[in-house]
TrEMBL record:
One of its GO terms (molecular function) is ATP binding. InterPro entries: AAA+_ATPase, ABC_transporter-like_ATP-bd, ABC_transporter-like_CS, Oligopep_ABC_C. Keywords: ATP-binding, Nucleotide-binding, Transport. It comes from the Bacteria. This is ABC transporter ATP-binding protein. Residues 2-244 form the ABC transporter domain. It holds the Pfam family oligo_HPY. The lineage of its organism: Bacteria, Bacillati, Actinomycetota, Actinomycetes, Streptosporangiales.
């Protein structure tokens, strides 16, 4: 459904745009319907840039991004099927208006002919779908709601559309542990509706909990990707191993799988793209990482 093919993003920076920063460098992966894919990598590795390109908020420098074969095209039709939810829910609300105004905008843009009572019913149902009590949250101002409630209202808003893909960028980072689990479970529920979710995070354990497949990004490049169990259970790239080793609970089973001084990619004589080390498990060249 979502497909990134050799996507590159170069930002022009400096006073006259004279300097170039390659934020995303030849990235390819896909997200299928009913699947959560987590995009993991350290700060500055290009995760949000990828999310913003998928949402049409920033242009693609090279390669292509398509949803059901159609290139990203910002506009009413595209956003009917593709929506994003971001880290800071407060920034999506205007503090002087009640929080449910975000639903009004959806009505005016996409459903102008739906009668008001029927619309109110749809909103109530969407709010209940994200496990909020409509009586408690509707009619309130943003400052009267918690970060987790605002975040869930944004997800509810996305659910009112005919959504195919949700890009969720660090959405759980500012939530407390129990609300975080609620939001994660909610994302897991979305899968059963056939929605695809790209879950951007730097928290491995959350990605591990949620995602069928994982993409590990480093300095704008994919170093490893594949089924989550394979990537975290048997990490092949030194960078992925570092990430996994930093999470005590995930650590252990992969000891000795690949000697630390081996670049599997190089050893197998791969060239171009990633090496498919086993079914649904791809790894990049690690020669640069091995001293
Ligand atoms: N608008 C911009 N103009 C110039 N450079 C940018 C811009 N946005 C991001 N960058 C640069 O692109 C690189 C990737 O940034 P990005 O925000 O995609 O990283 P990230 O993986 O989301 O990081 P984090 O985990 O901190 O959110 C960084 O080096 C960043 O400084
Ligand atoms: Mg980011």
């Amino acid at each position: 459904m979502l497909r990134l093919d050799n996507v590159t993003k170069v930002y022009k920076v400096g006073t006259f745009g004279g300097k170039a920063v390659t934020a995303v460098d030849g990235v390819s992966f896909d997200v299928r319907p009913g699947e959560v894919v987590s995009l993991i990598g350290e700060s500055g590795s290009g995760k949000s840039t990828i999310g913003r390109m998928i949402l049409g908020l920033t242009s693609v420098t090279g390669g292509s991004i398509t949803v059901d074969g159609v290139p990203v095209k910002p506009g009413k039709e595209y956003y009917r099927g593709v929506q994003g939810v971001f880290q800071d829910p407060f920034s999506c609300y205007n503090p002087v208006f009640k929080a449910d105004r975000v639903f009004r905008m959806i009505k005016e843009t996409y459903y102008p002919s739906v009668p008001e009572p029927a619309w109110a019913e749809r909103v109530r149902a969407a709010v209940q779908d994200v496990r909020l009590n409509p009586g408690e949250v509707l009619g309130k101002y943003p400052h009267q709601l918690s970060g987790g409630q605002l975040q869930r209202l944004l997800i509810a808003r996305a659910l009112l559309l005919d959504l195919k893909l949700l890009v969720a960028d660090e959405i759980t980072s500012m939530l407390d542990a129990s609300t975080r689990i609620d939001v994660l479970n909610l994302l897991a529920d979305l899968k059963t509706r056939g929605l695809g979710v790209l879950y951007v995070t730097h928290d491995l354990s959350l990605g591990n909990y949620l995602a069928e497949r994982t993409v590990v990004l480093r300095r704008g490049q994919v170093v490893e990707r594949g089924l989550t169990g394979k990537v975290f259970g048997d990490p092949l790239h030194p960078y992925t191993r570092q990430l996994v080793a930093a999470v005590p609970r995930l650590h252990a089973p992969w000891e000795d799988a690949v000697p630390a001084d081996t670049c599997l990619y190089h050893e197998k004589g791969a060239s171009g793209g990633l090496l498919e080390a086993e079914r649904d498990h791809f790894v990049a060249c690690a020669c640069g990482e091995i001293a």
